[in-house]
Amino acid sequence: MSSLLFGPGSPKPSHVYSRGDFDLESGNLRKSRKSRSSVSSFVRMMKSIGSKVSNFYKLHPFVVFITSLIFGMVILIVLSVYESSFRVMKNHKDDFNFASDSYPMKDLHNLVMVAGHSIYTSNTCGKFDSEDSWFLEPYQKHPGQASTFVAHIKKGVEIAGQDESTLLLFSGGETRKEAGPRSEAQSYWTVADANGWFGKQNSVRSRALTEEHARDSFENLLFSVCRFRELTGRYPKNITVVSYDFKKERFSDLHRAAIRFPKERFFFFGTPVTADSREAAIRGEALVMAQFQVDPYGCIGSLHYKRLKRDPFHRSVSYPTGCSELKDLFSYCGTAPYPGILPWGEQLHIQLHSSQ
After folding, report:
1. Residue 3 falls inside a structural domain
2. pTM of this structure
3. In sequence order, what are the beta bridge partners of 168?
4. 244 assigned to some structural domain
5. Which domain holds residue 89?
6. Is 88 domain-assigned?
7. Cβ-based neighbours of 153, under 8 Å, separated by 6 or more
8. Does 349 map to a domain?
C-alpha cells in the first residue's frame, strides 16, 4: 500500500488551496488575515505629531518661532561650514594638481628683470637705434634715446647669460594709447630676438619671457616677482633689476623695501641716459622719489592716477592669481611697509619643488 500512496509515480499534491487555509469542518477556504499597512501607520503617526505641534504652537507661538529661527540658523551655519570646507578642499586639490604639473621654468632660481620705458612701433626690423621706431613721450625725445632702450635689453641678456639658473623677464604693459595694443615687454623681447640675443641666443632665448601688465617701476618689480612664481613654482632667490642708473635708489631702496625683499639678495645694474637728457631726468627722478616716499605702493594720489592713465586699454591684471601667497601684499595700501608675512622673509621660503 505504501508504494501506491508514496511511490515515485504517485500524483503530486494539489496547490489549489495554497493561497489560504482550508477549513475541514465547513469545507470552505479561510482567507488569510491581512497585516496592517506600515504606510498607513506612519501616516497616522505623522498626523498625530502634526496635531501635537499645532496645539503646542497655539499655546506657545513665541517659543515655536524662536526655536524655528535657531534651527534655521544652525542649518545655515552647517551648510556654510560645509561649503567653505568643500571649497578649501577643492582649492587644495587644484593647487596640488597645478603644483604636480611641470612648470615651464621649474629649474630656474634667480630673476633678472629689465624695466620697459617705451614701445617699439616700427613695422620693420633693423631700425632699433632710430627714435622714429619708438613711441616717445615729449621728455624722451632726445638724440640717442632709442639706443638707451637697446642698452637695457642687451645688459639684461648679458647678465642672464652668465647664469643658467636665471629667468630673464622684460616688464612693461600696454601703456600708450597712441602706440596701440603693444606692450613694452613684448617690444623689448622682439628687439632682443631680432638682434639674435646679442650672440647668446642658444643660452638665453629659452629663458627669456615677458611680464606685460606693469604700469610703473614698482609694478615692474612686484609683477615680475609674481610672474616668476607663475613660471617656476617658487619665488626668486636673487633679484637683479636693469634700468637707468639714476633710478638705482628708487629700485634698491624704496621698491625693494616696500616688498621687504632681502637687501643682500637684491642687485641693480644701471645704464646711462643721453647726455642731453640727464639733467632733466635727475630733476624728474627727484619728484618721483618724493611721491614714492609718501606713497610707497603707488595706490593714492598722483601715482595712482598715473597708473590709470597708463592703462588705456583697460587690461585686466591676472595677478595675484599666480602668486596667492602675495594676495595681501597686492591689496595693501599704506605709508608704512607691509606688515604681513612674505615668502622671502623670516626664514619662510615658499618652495613647491624639492629641487633647488
Report:
1. no
2. 0.71
3. 112, 208
4. yes
5. 39-100
6. yes
7. 114, 170, 188, 191, 192, 195
8. no
286 and 324 in a single domain? The answer is yes
* Count: domains in the chain: 2
Q: Which residues contact 342 (CB under 8 A, 6 or more apart)?
A: 259, 260, 325, 326, 329, 348
CA distance 218 to 232: 21
Confidence of residue 351 (pLDDT cuts 50, 70, 90): very low
Mean pLDDT for the chain overall:
85
What's 267's DSSP letter? E
CB-side exposure of 354: number of CA atoms within 13 Å? 1
Q: Measuring CA to CA, which residue among 107, 78, 72, 48 is closest to residue 232?
A: 107
Which ranges constitute the DSSP H helices of the chain?
2-6, 38-59, 61-100, 145-161, 184-194, 201-204, 217-232, 248-249, 256-258, 278-294, 301-309, 327-331
- Measured CA to CA, the distance from residue 342 to residue 328 in angstroms comes to 10
How far is CA 115 from each of CA 62, 135, 149, 158, 271, rounded to the nearest angstrom? 68, 16, 10, 15, 12
Say how far apart CA 2 and CA 28 lie, in whole Å. 30
pLDDT for 45? 78
**3-state SS, residue 240:** strand
Cα-based torsion angle of the residue sequence 217, 222, 228, 231 in order, rounded to the nearest 10 degrees: -100
**Cβ 166 vs Cβ 173: under 8 Å:** no
Tens of pLDDT, residues 156-194? 999 999 999 999 999 999 999 999 999 999 999 999 999
Q: 309 and 207 in one domain?
A: yes
Query: From CA 20, how far away is CA 31, in angstroms rounded?
Result: 5
Cell 587644495, located at residue: 92
Residue 344: which of 318, 325, 330, 327 has the closest Cα? Answer: 325
**Is the bond leading into 320 cis (omega within 30 degrees of zero)?**
yes
